[in-house]
Amino acid sequence: MTNQLIECVPNFSEGKDTAVIKQITDQISTVDGVQLLDVDPGQATNRTVVTIVGSPNEVIEAAVRAIRKASELIDMSKHHGEHPRFGATDVCPLVPVSNITMDETVEYARTLARRIGEEVGIGVYCYEHAALKEDRRNLAVVRAGEYEGLKEKLAKPEWKPDFGPAKFNPAAGVTAVSARDFLVAYNVNLNTTSTRRANAIAFDVREKGRKKRDGNSLTGPIVKDEQGRDVWFPGKLKCVKGIGWFIEEYGVAQVSVNLTNISVTPVHIAFDEICKSSDSRGVRVTGSELVGLIPLGAILDAGRYFLKKQERSIGVSDSELIKIAVKSLGLDDLYPFKPEEKIIEYVLRAMSKPKKRLVDLTLEGLVHETASESPAPGGGSIAAAMGAFGAALATMVANLSSHKRGWDDRWEEFSDWAEKGKAYHDELLRLIDLDTDAFNEIMNAFGLPAGSEEEKSAKKLAIQEATKHAIEIPFRVMETAFAAMDVVKAMAEIGNPNSVSDAGVGALAARSAVMGAYLNVRINAKDVEDKAWIDDILSRGGTIQDRAIAMESEILEIVSEKMV
Q1: Which of 385, 416, 411, 389 shows the shortest CA–CA distance to 400?
Q2: What kind of architecture, by CATH, is found in domain 5-179?
Q3: Where are the alpha helices (DSSP H) in 293-410?
Q4: Rg for the chain, CA atoms, rounded
Q5: Which residues contact 254 (CB under 8 A, 6 or more apart)?
Q6: Which of 153, 126, 156 is nearest to 138 (CA)?
Q7: What are the tens digits of pLDDT across the range 281-337?
Q8: Model-level pTM?
Q9: What architecture (CATH level 2) is domain 184-350?
Q10: Residues 317, 321, 326, 327: is their CA dihedral positive or negative?
Q11: Which residues are catalytic, by number?
């Protein structure tokens, strides 16, 4: 499974003393698997917003350490600032970034809240998606009265914190923890200098809309309801806040929006709606810009969206999808868009200084690395590579078929096949390095000390677990390569006939991947003491191998018939 990533955005009630801020953020850097992306202090608010990203458990650990340090250094009885607040760590939301659901993020948020209460001794309220009580979902309600009213609030049974003590802590106050959706700050550039026109477009699209006026004119009296309140005419897009402004630096007006839930209104939908509204008002969109970072998935979704509008296959590489998204959204209108600086996953990859990956080598480099005296990479990694090539060939045939002259009405059919093929070759590429990593785990286990009986027992267990893992990886290669043969067969049967030989080579490569990976399963099987587990793996592996060989024969027969 691909690594889960969450973002954590703690807000600390100190925005002036850089020494205090540094001591707090230094705690984050003590946790491996977490990256400190941004530290944004505010003088007027006397508040610092920190952004960290990483795997869930490590992010929680980093947050707990930082919150503990903040409780030691910040005295809320002396705090003054323009922003509402009631704690040294005022709020600490968790945000799902990739490969994690909101429900999972909620559980992590509550785990964080529990740890703050138990380990730091601060009262914690859970709000938004993490709320344990419906009337605590709204942060404004939870924080009502702020720090000055906190002592009285905590004395009321109905305001007992969800976790931690209900006793007033004059120095640290309390903390609010939530799980919320990822927020994207996004500006769309217009070919006008008119803030009024930019505002009108923003009001068209933002969820709040605009105040309703008599006769639906733009200048008539504002309509009131029976209670004398302004009546609002809603905008087109949910989970969107927006305003128009003029950017002197670039000499253009922009529609500036906050997308508060990109699963409801993604960037590409906001862009298209702003384009439609602009066009209706005689204004043209020239491009757009992202403020801050965005998850990779959001950019890939945009690329797929615009390819589908062109009736083109979406089963292309991530780099191609990003290129399409950048060009379609005009993200390089004001300055070059650099994926390694704007996409969260790419920023993390650059910051983490990862070890050299086999998949990052040139093809020539991989061959030479394989031929070296080192035992890894070996047959398992090469089997995965063969499988990736097999799936890639099938994907190529699907992409070629999707825009074959005369087959225009079938583009979506082949796009679906290409997307399946891409998923298989991406997984097999990932397994190339995982197979070598698994071999290294075995070597590391053999290197453990074995002086005492306890150490001997621990070493034996570690070797057994590592060996099982070294079997599970090539078994996954077998499963994935065999599944990819469905795409290969389909492309041999219905794909572009001019590429049928490519489908045949794909079948040979995928079958070889299955058989090669099974050899790796078998050679490690003899060292596992759990015979029931091994018997099951070998039985299932043998079945997959037999089916792959049979499937290869079927595909090659189809290929031969079409080549006559």
Answers
A1: 411
A2: 2-Layer Sandwich (3.30)
A3: 296-309, 318-329, 339-342, 344-351, 363-371, 379-402
A4: 29
A5: 187, 188, 189, 190, 198, 244, 245, 246, 247
A6: 126
A7: 999 999 999 877 888 999 999 999 999 999 999 999 999 999 999 999 999 999 999
A8: 0.80
A9: 2-Layer Sandwich (3.30)
A10: positive
A11: 83, 435
